[in-house]
Amino acid sequence: MDLESVKRYLETGGYEEDKNASTIEKMPLRFFERFIMQGLHIDLIEPGRVVCSMKVPPRLLNGGNFLHGGATATLVDLVGSAAIFTVGAPATGVSVEINVSYLDAAFADVGISPPLSYILFLACVFLNALIE
Fold first, then answer.
1. Staple partner for 51: which of 4, 44, 77, 97, CB 3.0–4.6 Å?
2. Beta strands at 49-55 and 41-46: parallel, antiparallel or unpaired
């Protein structure tokens, strides 16, 4: 693919003309989080720990028909933030780094839950530094 085609693909989301632009701009606030998390079930919640599961919905599939890596990273970010709230933090701040190890593909209508097919290890390091 030539560079101009790659540029056009990235700028238009794969469409020759961006016919979805006006629709996308009208999406409700925080639509993306709701789009990813709809169908998530909390199996256990306690201070410092959130265990959840979900059946992979077709809307979160990539071109290979399995859970999109971006959806996985978003779930890690959002559920990780929820775990921070369980210890009484008033806010979570901004994720600086997220590292996801993909152990296997999760296909449509397959349940993902720990510890069988999806394991999340969340380590949070809080640093107090003077920034000049």
1. 44
2. antiparallel
Domain 38-132 class? alpha beta
Q: pTM of the entire structure?
A: 0.70
Structure tokens belonging to residue 10: 């990235």
Two structure tokens written together for 96: 């600086």
Instruction: Tell me which DSSP letter residue 104 carries.
Output: S
Q: Residue 128: is it exposed, middle or buried by C-beta count within 10 angstroms (0-12/13-18/19+)?
A: exposed
Which residue carries 């890690």 as its tokens?
76
User: Which pLDDT score is estimated for 13?
Assistant: 67
Task: Give ranges for CATH 3.10.129.10 in the chain.
Answer: 38-132
Q: Which helix (H) or strand (E) holds 111?
A: strand 111-112
Please, which pLDDT band fits residue 128 given cuts at 50, 70 and 90?
A: very low
Report the pLDDT value the prediction gives residue 61, as an integer from 0 to 100. 92
